[in-house]
Amino acid sequence: MGRVTLQTVADKVGVSRMTVSNAFSRPDQLSTHLRARILATAQELGYAGPDPAARALARGTAGSVGVLMTDSLTYAFTDEVATGFLGAITEQLAPTGLALTLLSSSAHGDLVPARDVPIDGALVYSCDLDSASVDWLSRRGLPLVFVDQEPPADAPSVNVDDRGGARAAAQHLVDLGHRRIGILTAEHAGPHGVLVPAHTASEHHVARARMLGWTDALTAAGIEPLVVREALVREEAAYQAARVLLDRDDRPTAILCFADVMAHWAVRAAEDAGLRVPEDLSVVGFDDSPLARRMRPELTTVRQPVAEKGRAAAAALTEAIELAQQGKPPRVRHVVLPTELVIRESTGPASA
Given 60, 104, 294, 337, which is the most exposed site by the fewest CB atoms within 10 A? Predict the structure, then answer.
């Protein structure tokens, strides 16, 4: 038998090509019995269905939404917060039939994913808003939802209360009597691995919000923290950043960390320096990722609702896509989800 086509199935069943096409793409146009007969015949002949690219062209849609990430796409598969976020998105998208496409912000030869990959809309996830990729998505006129970003005036956004969560974490250490406090924070651009002033401006929205929260509580208590910045995707580098703090004669008695994974390396650095957690050093993370409970001692951290954030972002994007298909502007809503301090075993009273 030669190549099986839509016409092959139509001839076998004795219906038109349009009727076979409707069996795959517009089932409401056919009776249940006829559709079942067509699909059974297609399976018998080995026909997989109309070409997806052709169907997308006919509908004027791609059937896919993008997630633009500043970091390497490897980060999406190795970081537990990112995987939880993406998992919640796919769960929310499942009933819509939309696929999820990860978009790197880096060009690959002549291919610029944000410009060239067919998608119906995109989530801009913790990206530099001045990047060329964000500009390409905007120029394409795609529905966009911004996540972990400074909320734009003309598009929906989903964030968590990073500042409030960080403030609660810092206040927890102040209440435990800590006065020498270090901060390990994240920044895409340098300088990395060196002490910087606490009020050094950050281009990263989440890092900026968390720093504001930490310093809200510390400044009120008259505390000037020691701050080291590191790139979040360079996990082991957080170990060296922690050693910058712990190898000082006036080492801190507590460290606030941008993320649980940084806190993990801070604890490792403390152990290698002969320090006990929390007797000699208290450590606080952020995220409440699965890592926080696997750590020994279990990590005091700030819980952000990662799954709820993913579902809210996907829901906002599917709504924006539906409105765009109706020729309507997006409903601009800025969602801020609450955070919660979770006190476990990695924090205790300040040592002498």
Answer: 60
Q: What digits encode the pLDDT tens for the residues 11-55?
A: 888 998 888 877 876 777 888 889 889 888 888 888 776 665 555
Backbone angles phi, psi at 82, to 5 degrees: -65, -40
Residue type, 144: L
Angle ∠(120,124,125) on CA atoms, nearest 5: 135
Q: What are phi and psi of 296, to 5 degrees?
A: -125, 115
Alpha carbons 277 and 271: distance in angstroms, whole number: 8
Query: What digits encode the pLDDT tens for the residues 52-88?
Result: 555 554 555 668 899 998 766 666 677 888 899 999 9
